[in-house]
Write a structure and sequence with these properties.
Layout (H helix, E strand, L loop, with lengths): L2 H5 L7 H20 L4 H8 L1 H5 L1 H8 L7 H17 L1 H14 L1 H7 L7 H17 L2 H25 L5 H30 L4
Helix pairs in contact: 2-9, 3-9, 5-6, 6-9, 7-8, 7-9, 7-10, 8-10, 9-10, 10-11
Length: 198
């Protein structure tokens, strides 16, 4: 390959530039929401993944640490997209988990019974709250939501008597990942309250 051909190969952006772009775009989303965006603009920001595509948002923010603004926003958008794609499964796991993690269920803010439509409403409300009002409160709510669903997923595996095998391992890993994300969002909420989530 000659140097001219090598120059035409498109590589990934410089990691420092990607990180800077992630922070700038995340800040821009919040700034737009906090600067008195009307209901239509807030709705457009909430539906960012639907209009721009999950891949575009993931490319911007998914590699950002959970203790950063873009990383925290990515987890909120990922939650909304997950609920949008699997509302029945999530409602079932939320119902199971809220029996065990009752306080987290209340913090998440879902009405009983947690129907698929209610799950979608909660996801939209959490994201809209992050965009327009108190980011820390929205992150706490999302953390609680992830914790309840993770608890429900683990209980579901127990109820279906999945103590061994690939299916049990997969359900347990998913539940653990959700609880870990809940912990990350709880820490991000603390940073947001302290003014150090950047």
């Amino acid at each position: 390959m000659d140097p001219a051909q090598a120059d035409r190969i498109v590589g990934r952006a410089d990691p420092a530039m990607r990180e800077a772009a992630a922070h700038r775009t995340a800040s821009a989303v919040l700034r737009r929401g906090h600067d008195g965006a009307d209901a239509a603009e807030v709705d457009r920001l909430v539906r960012l993944v639907e209009t721009e595509g999950i891949e575009v948002v993931a490319e911007l923010w998914a590699d950002s640490g959970a203790d950063t603004l873009p990383g925290a926003l990515w987890r909120l958008y990922a939650l909304r997209e997950w609920i949008r794609r699997s509302p029945v499964e999530i409602a079932q796991h939320f119902a199971l988990g809220s029996r065990r993690a009752q306080v987290a269920g209340v913090v998440a803010g879902a009405a009983e019974p947690p129907t698929p439509d209610e799950m979608r409403r909660v996801a939209d409300a959490v994201l809209a709250g992050a965009i327009t009002a108190d980011l820390d409160v929205a992150l706490d709510r999302a953390s609680a939501f992830y914790r309840v669903v993770g608890t429900g997923m683990a209980l579901d595996a127990d109820l279906q008597d999945l103590p061994h095998g690939d299916e049990a391992a997969h359900a347990t890993r998913r539940a653990n990942n959700l609880v870990r994300t809940a912990d990350e969002l709880r820490d991000a909420a603390r940073r947001a309250r302290a003014g150090t989530l950047e």
